Amino acid sequence: MEIRSTTDQDLDVFVDxxxxxxxxxxxxxxxxxxxxxxALEMDRNLLAVTADGRPVGTAGAYSFELTLPGEILVPxxxxxxxxxxxxxxxxxxxxxxxxxxxTELRARGEFLSVLLASEALIYxxxxxxxxxxxxxxxxPRHQAALALPRARGTADSPATGSxxxxxxxxxxxxxxxxxxxxxxxxxxxxxxxxxxxxLGAGQPPxxxxxxxxxxxxxxxxxxxxxxxxxxxxxxxxxxxxxxxxDDAVFTxxxxxxxxxxxxxQVVFKHVAPDHPLRWQLVDFRAGQVSEDTDWLWVRLLDVPxxxxxxxxxxxxxxxxxxxxxxxxxxxRYLLTVRDGKADCVPTDREPDLSLDVSxxxxxxxxxxxxxxxxxxxxxxxxxxxxxxxxxALFRAERSPHCLHWF
Length: 406
Description:
This protein has 406 residues and is of the alpha+beta class.
């Protein structure tokens, strides 16, 4: 078997092999053809081919920016389109592709890779750990009233401005601009390159599928938030995503959506687990949580570079003993944080924490507390107080959240 890089001429073979791996058929031109895959970067993809030339596996990567704590933007490879034909599973094809891919990412100078895991059991063994989480929130229309805030102050002031209803085809540039402002300040968010919007690649509202879009404008008329939605079966209003530059704008959009006439319920597909929307409902139980799940998985390819790249909000010092079984590596690092900046160097000092690189990926963005993984038996704390210090160090200014599908 050979693992080889692809070119633009391999697009059809790549997409057909990927669909066959999941037992599906490619979309017909009437269904949108292959618009969803039009943003594939063929110079970053891999094809597993048998000795007689048959393609049996695929793996790809997109070029994204990931927002780290501290509003720091760094390049990250978005691993995607990973599949192996049923006839060739459990024969080492996936492992070979993952090892080749990680080697190539390092050769490109990348120190982070991310993915959305189709199955939670697959990717931890390759060094990925769940780092952001999301949930679906369903609110029955007859219980959708929002309470007035009890606390008064600048942070609780209602958004000033207006909400305008547009169709998706009318506001592509607005969506792109507002999303880009949002993702630059949101830890865990990924960029949406211009070519995605231009090609209509991906899920709504990137693709031009029919959607209504509620656009919020500030007092000066500048768009600062939007919500993409449609009304479907059983009069359910489903919100693809709500993007807002602050909580007051989100509340204004939520009030608009929850006040829609002639719908039975409103479903917010992607809400951060700690989002305050449930608390804003007059009836707390009206917000019904479902599909509470992992979303973005993170893999560190260069531990010192990754740890010194992000912002920090507490001073301290930790010795981390990091094991990377898949790549056969182990390193012990002294992490020193002062005034929001980190230094990370190899050390022979006794470790404070011993952990797998996948667990380091989980805590990296601040969405998983190290102490939770200590209690779960994943991370070993070698001294009292080490887990508490790690919690304080790795926390972010706000919970990481990712909406982008890839």
